[in-house]
C-alpha cells in the first residue's frame, strides 16, 4: 500500500476517535497510550473502550488457555489479531502511542524541579544541545574545565563512592526510577560503612563520562545511573554502570552494569539494594567488570 494512503487512513482513524471523545485532541503524544487504554465515553449507542495491550486478539483459537500462557510469558506484541491483512485499530493506536512515548523520552529534559527535589546539582558535558548530543556521541563523554571546577566546588572529593545521574537516551527513566533506587543504594552502602559523596546530575552525558568524573573526585567506585535507549515495550528503563577507579584508559570490559531497572524489570528499590552489595565486592577486591564477574561466580 502507498505510504501516503496508509498515512491518510491512520490520520482518519485518529480524527474519528478524537471526534468521538476517545482520544483528547490536546493530549501530548506520550499520553496517547494512557488515553487509549482508559478512555470510556458514552455515545448515542454503546460506550467505547479501547482494549488494553494484553488482550488476545486471535479469533476462535483452538487452545485459548495456551495462548493466555504465551501472552503472560512476554511483553512482546504477539497474538494481537488482525483485520484482513492489517493490524487491528486498537493495536495500531497502542503502537503509535508507545512510539511517541519513546520519542518523548529521548527529546525531553529532566526537569529542574525533579533535580531540586532530589538535591542533585546540575552540570553539563561539552555538548551544546540535544541535536549535537545525538549526532556526536563522543562529546557526551567529555567535561569542560569550567564544569570540572564547578563539580569540585559543589561536590565532595575523596569519598569511597561517587554517584552520578546521567540523562542518557531516556530522561523519562531517570524521573521514574531515581527516587527509589538511589536512596536504597546509599542506605545499603552507609550500612556497610562505605562513605558516599554527594550525588549530582550530568546533562547530555554518555557512559564514558564516568572516566573523567572518577579521577576528578578521587573515589574508589563510581556508580552511574543512565537512561537506556527507549523501545516500544518501555521508555522507563535505566541502567547502572559501575567501575573501580576508572580513568581515560578504562575499556568497556572493566565496567559492571545492571540494566533493565524499571517497574516491569528489576524494581528500582531492589536494584539499589543489590547495587550496594556489588559495590562492596568491588571495593573489597579492587576490581570491576569481567574480573569481578569471574570472582562472583
Question: How would you describe this structure to a colleague?
Answer:
The longest helix is centred in the middle third of the chain and has 21 residues, at 171-191. It is globular, with a radius of gyration of 23 Å. It folds into two domains: 3-107, Ethanolamine ammonia-lyase light chain (EutC), N-terminal domain (DNA Binding (I), subunit A, Orthogonal Bundle); 112-295, Rossmann fold, CATH 3.40.50. Helix 2 (32-38) runs antiparallel to helix 4. The strands form three sheets. It has a six-stranded mixed beta sheet with strand order 5-7-6-8-9-10, with helices on both faces. Strands 1-2 form a two-stranded antiparallel sheet. A two-stranded antiparallel sheet has the order 3-4. It is built from eleven helices and ten strands. The N and C termini lie far apart (53 Å). By secondary structure, it is of the alpha/beta class.
Based on the model shown, name its key terms:
14% strand, alpha/beta, 11 helices, globular, DNA Binding (I), subunit A, 6-stranded mixed beta sheet, 297 residues, two-stranded antiparallel sheet
